[in-house]
Every structure is written in C-alpha cells, then in structure tokens.
Design a protein that fits this description.
The protein is mostly beta strands. The protein has one domain: CheA-289, Domain 4 (OB fold (Dihydrolipoamide Acetyltransferase, E2P)). It has three helices and ten strands, in the order βββββαβββββαα. It has a five-stranded mixed beta sheet. Strands 3-6-7-5-4 form a five-stranded mixed beta sheet. The radius of gyration is 20 Å and the shape is globular.
C-alpha cells in the first residue's frame, strides 16, 4: 500500500472582504457608518418608552430600559449636527453601542443595515468643525459620501459628560 506524499500548497492570500459597518441616517441629509464591533443591537422603540430626565444636556433625551439595563438615549443628530431628530416621530430608531464598559443608545433617523467597506478612509477636512472630533473619515460608496463615525469619540464626548 502506497502512502500518498502531501506537498505543501503555496499560501493563498485571503480575499479582502472589507470591514463590517452599520449604515444609518443621522438625519435626512447625513448618511453614516459605525464599525459593527461597537454595535450591540439595533431596535425601534415607541417614543413613550424614553423617560425624560431633568437637568441633562439637550442631546440626552432621557433613559429607557432594555433587557433590565437602563440606558441613556442620545439624539445623535443634535449632538453632532445641532439639528434635533424629528420631534413628531412616534418611534425612534436606536442603535445600542458599547465602547469598553460604556453602553450608549444613539437615536438616529433610520437604520439602513450592515455594509462592507473595502475602500480606504478619506480625511474629513471639509466637514463642520463641530463634527470633526467624531469622525474617522469618510468613504464614497455608490455615488454617496458616507461619514465613518468614531465610536470612542462619541462615547467620550464632552457633551455627554459635562453636566
């Protein structure tokens, strides 16, 4: 009985499938991405589930309970762009992110799904100065400029911690 001799195969480089990002609309005019490694969950909740809290920064709409955890509900459009989310809405699109031990729920206009990014990030020099600290950069995808947000900068934002 002959034993086959196995010869090593040359290493095949892996196909670059890109990094995974959650795609969403901050407001009607601003599409954005957040690395999925920071995203725990996305959900839609009625606005009545958010309990307003007095003496908080304007971008913090209040608290809500999710799976026996109390989370801050932050209006991301107001925090980053100084344009509040539509107050007449009956429900909020929320993405729950975690940076280290800090969970935070961000209210956005609409969640669009998960996308893969293979393009290199471009620097964000032309964005408003208030938005710059929260950006990793931007990419062009299907004729659309997508802002790539920095989860750590959002979680550590002075507007959330100076109250």
């Amino acid at each position: 009985m002959d034993i086959p001799i196995l010869t090593p195969q040359p290493h095949q480089p892996e196909t670059n499938v890109g990094s995974s990002y959650l795609r969403f609309q901050i407001n009607a005019d601003t599409p954005a991405l957040l690395a999925t490694k920071y995203v725990q969950e996305v959900l839609i909740v009625p606005t009545t589930r958010i309990t307003p809290m007095p003496n908080m920064p304007e971008c913090i709409l209040g608290l809500f309970n999710r799976r026996n955890r109390i989370l801050w509900a932050v209006d991301l459009a107001l925090m980053l762009l100084a344009q509040p989310i539509d107050a007449s809405s009956q429900q909020y699109h929320i993405l729950i992110m975690r940076v280290g031990e800090t969970p935070l729920s961000l209210i956005v206009r609409e969640i669009k799904g998960v996308t893969r990014v293979t393009a290199n990030l471009q620097p964000s020099a032309e964005e408003s100065s208030a938005l710059l600290p929260y950006l990793e950069g931007y990419i062009w995808q299907q004729q659309e400029k997508l802002l790539v947000l920095d989860a750590k900068a959002i979680a550590n934002s002075p507007s959330l911690h100076n109250y």
